[in-house]
Amino acid sequence: MAIGMEYLLDWIFPRYCCICGEFLSTHKFKYLCKSCSEKIILTGAHICEKCGHDFGEISAEAPSRCLRCLNSEFQFIALRSAVRLNYVTRRLIHQLKYKYGKHLAGDFVRIMQKNIPFMTLLEGGILVPVPLHWKRVFKREYNQSEVIASYLRKFSANVEVLPLLKRVRHTPPQVGLHIRERRGNVKNAFGINSKIKINHDRKLIIFDDVFTTGSTINECCKELRRHGFYNIYAATFTQTSKN
Ligand SMILES: [Zn+2]
Ligand SMILES: [Zn+2]
Questions:
Q1: Do 53 and 98 reside in the same domain of the chain?
Q2: Which domain range does residue 26 map to?
Q3: Ligand 2 (ion): which residues have CB within 5 A?
Q4: pTM score, two decimals?
């Protein structure tokens, strides 16, 4: 778009930072100001080889696996998250999920693209968004994981998106539940979408906004494995650091 046109559009439809409310002039993010975007921290070099948990800036050698992975039997080969969870990324997720924040999807992708190892994991893969039950989609009008995944496909030539899973059971939100309750809550909640026929050795990447205890993503893995898919990875925008 011509620069002059962009200024005109900004004048007619002013944009504000979705975190601090500052008025935005042209900037590389559409709904994030410079100061808020600089507070976003990409996951670093010291991460858990299994779930991507970020150990932070540690001087000693990082362990290869985090506590969460030593105590769980995750069915995916590896999971990676693009950014650390902090005040800004938590607010971004909240705005996306609960404030009709579909328009923020482009900025989510612009942030994720800065994390090269994360983007490399997606290369050549099929993103499988964690499905929501239709009742929740009806309430929110969209599935946030599906919206971000579609944007990722738009910006990355070598990524596909397929709704290979469907939610077969409506479950209460996971928020506030203990890990054991979370597991029970999502047990058998997913089914395979048998209309989609793809080769079983394709690289699948279960895609979600946040990785917490892993119950939901693990349940998705189990359903895919039940149907003969084993080349399964997972990717999320961010993850909780409870470890
Ligand atoms: Zn801001
Ligand atoms: Zn881990």
A1: yes
A2: 1-38
A3: 48, 50-51, 53, 66, 68-69
A4: 0.90
